[in-house]
């Protein structure tokens, strides 16, 4: 009886040590596998980095993008000439609006045309609930301090909008829209008419690749499920 009592705990101790040993072995294997996985992931990132740095990679990307834009617009030199007659004629033409927006993206100032388009859509609203929701969306994106796409407005214009935003009307943004329109007409439009983007179209030359920034986040109809818009997207 005494012998069994002596050896029983010893066997348990050996068994416990064996389990501990195997746990350490398996744990070490997992750790090693984890290290190997990290090394392989790092190697893949390095290979991707080298690929992105290759000139032919960029040339193909820009070529495809430029070709897509050219196919989309299909602007004749005659149409482009009309855009140069006035800023209003440029914006009233669908391809003119898209081309001008593309130009503004190269200058990192597309918030101005996005705001103008949003206001045009807002003025078509008929349902009172739509007016309230759209006005709030425009205010939060373009007007309020530190808005993600804040447009350049004078203090008085911004203050009037802020005071009346809880009870908006279809004319709540008229003053701000007019201000932004003037800024684009006097500043951006003048540079646009001298840009390669416009001159290539007017002269009938193939469009050159342009360094376009990623399209900024824009409002869509799905963002506000209760808001029905007359346009699919505010650029």
Describe the structure.
The model is unreliable at 6-11, 20-32, 48-72 and 213-235 (pLDDT under 50). With 235 residues, the chain is an all-alpha fold. It is globular and about 50 Å long. The chain has a domain at 77-203: Regulator of G-protein Signalling 4, domain 2, CATH 1.10.167. The protein is built from ten helices and no strands.
Task: Summarize this structure briefly.
The chain contains 10 helices and no strands. It has about 240 residues and is mainly alpha-helical.
List keywords for this structure.
235 residues, mainly alpha, Regulator of G-protein Signalling 4, domain 2, 10 helices, globular, disordered C terminus
Layout of secondary structure:
Layout: H1 2-53, H2 55-73, H3 77-83, H4 87-92, H5 94-106, H6 111-122, H7 128-143, H8 155-164, H9 174-192, H10 196-202
Helix pairs in contact: 3-10, 6-7, 6-9
Organism: Odobenus rosmarus divergens (Pacific walrus)
Keywords: Signal transduction inhibitor
Domain RGS: 86-202
């Amino acid at each position: 009886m005494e012998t069994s009592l002596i050896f029983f705990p010893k066997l348990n101790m050996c068994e416990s040590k064996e389990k501990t040993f195997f746990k350490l072995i398996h744990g070490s294997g997992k750790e090693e596998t984890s290290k190997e996985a990290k090394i392989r992931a790092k190697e893949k990132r390095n290979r991707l980095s080298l690929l992105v740095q290759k000139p032919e990679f960029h040339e193909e990307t820009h070529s495809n993008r430029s070709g897509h834009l050219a196919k989309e617009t299909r602007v004749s030199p005659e149409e482009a000439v009309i855009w140069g007659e006035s800023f209003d004629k440029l914006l009233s033409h669908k391809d003119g609006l898209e081309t001008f927006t593309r130009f503004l993206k190269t200058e990192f100032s597309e918030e101005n045309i996005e705001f103008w388009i949003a206001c045009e859509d807002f003025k078509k609203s008929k349902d009172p609930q739509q007016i309230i929701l759209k006005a709030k969306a425009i205010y939060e994106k373009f007007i309020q301090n530190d808005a993600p796409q804040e447009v350049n407005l004078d203090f008085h214009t911004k203050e009037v909008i802020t005071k009346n935003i809880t009870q908006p009307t279809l004319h709540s943004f008229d003053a701000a829209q007019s201000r932004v329109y003037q800024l684009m007409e006097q500043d951006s439009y003048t540079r646009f008419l001298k840009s390669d983007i416009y001159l290539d179209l007017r002269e009938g030359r193939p469009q050159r690749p342009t360094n376009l920034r990623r399209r900024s986040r824009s409002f869509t109809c799905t963002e506000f499920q209760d808001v029905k818009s007359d346009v699919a997207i505010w650029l």
